[in-house]
Amino acid sequence: MNDFLKLSIVSVSPSSVGASSFILLLQSEDFPSLRFPIVIGNQEAQAISVYLEQIQTSRPLTHDLFIQVIDKSNLKIEKVLITDFKEGIFYAKIILIQEDKWVELDARPSDSIALALRAQKNIYIKEALLKSICIPEDEEELEDEDLSSLETTAYQSVSLSLAELEELLQKALLEENYEEAARLRDQIEILNNQK
């Protein structure tokens, strides 16, 4: 694994590209200045956010179900590798172990990462690939400031009481709308911190 670097998740944020897309920002654990974004879909962003924010779901999500299937079979996830970036598309492999044999599955990075989180396994990227796609630190900081400003504006535009927000949070959880639940929970935390 000398030519691979371990990655960690920096954030999952709404994308300015479209309402149903999100930006997953990843960085090297060894070189934190090496960061890069992946545009992911709403479902994958929800699957990653639910795990990161430790939201308990009433029923298993798709990635939870897949982990259950792996656990019940004679397989174990070993790691996830982000292997390539071609024509604006990232490629990944899920590395599994089956009776001392390695099995590689081609997968989208967003699904691979959601599974790696649940299996508590590491995510890696080829060092050369990371260096070729990483965004300069000053550009990344500008993007973070813009996202932070947009989130603050969105929170300020909603003037609901704490009780109303908590009621909406419970409703979102019952409807299994975990993305909305996470947003509402963040809003509740902001209001609680202002007391």
From TrEMBL:
Top-rank taxon: Bacteria
Record InterPro entries: BFN_sf (IPR036104), Bi_nuclease_dom (IPR003729), UVR_dom (IPR001943), UVR_dom_sf (IPR036876)
Domain BFN, first and last residues per copy: 4-137
Keywords on record: Coiled coil, DNA damage, SOS response
Residue ranges of domain UVR in the record: 159-194
DNA damage keyword on record: yes
BP-aspect Gene Ontology terms: SOS response
Name by which UniProt lists this protein: BFN domain-containing protein
Organism (species): Aquirufa rosea
